[in-house]
Amino acid sequence: AQTVTQSxxxxxxxxxxxxxxxxxxxxxxxxxxxxxxxxxxxxxxxxVIRQExxxxxxxxxxxxxxxxxxxxxxxxxxxxxxxxxxxxMYFCAYRSYSGNTPLVFGKGTxxxxxx
Amino acid sequence: DGGxxxxxxxxxxxxxxxxxxxxxxxxxxxxxxxxRQDPGQGLRLxxxxxxxxxxxxxxxxxxxxxxxxxxxxxxxxxTSAQKNPTAFYLCASRTTGLGGNTxxxxxGSWLTVV
Lengths: 115, 114
What we know:
The complex is a heterodimer.
Chain A: E1 3-5, E2 10-14, E3 19-21, E4 24-26, E5 32-39, E6 46-52, E7 60-61, E8 64-69, E9 74-79, E10 88-96, E11 104-105, E12 109-114
Parallel strand pairs in A: 2-12
Antiparallel strand pairs in A: 1-4, 3-9, 5-6, 5-10, 7-8, 8-9, 10-11, 10-12
Chain B: E1 4-7, E2 10-13, E3 19-25, E4 31-38, E5 42-51, E6 54-57, E7 64-66, E8 76-78, E9 87-94, E10 104-105, E11 109-113
């Protein structure tokens, strides 16, 4: 079974600075998807960014980018120019490419943004 | 508006009672999921369904039951056999067709045992 590990329960960053959240995963599959979801205090799960394992290029969405290292099974999220609205729980998630399998989540990292 | 609607937002259950959480989607998605969230535990899968009249147990299915009689509906019943049901519950869905790589979530339901 696949597992996802987020080793940083809490992180903090100064406003306008850059922060990187770590995620590692364990799988024997070669094709899969990786995701970062944001959960603000409202508890709504918001998709931040998605990466297909077969793509070598790292995904980017505005201020959010990932560092995908397939051999190392690492999938970190970099937030640039941090804003107060970035404060939230961030979850890393894995889904197999084949079949209709559910997402497997890490335990999350709570990000605080300091003004 | 298209989306996933969970109700009620807040629910209180007495010891020994069964309660049902509603999840409705108008996105025409085939697959639907129920997750439970506890502090420090992330999201854990309870049940999921890929098509109507079919569903599979997730990692923590004991004490829960589901049905999938309609494509747009996937209600979750928390039975009295679930010993620690106080948690936040999230419903999600995904199309299994082209472009169905992303799972979308409802706004969640809080269940508290009193």
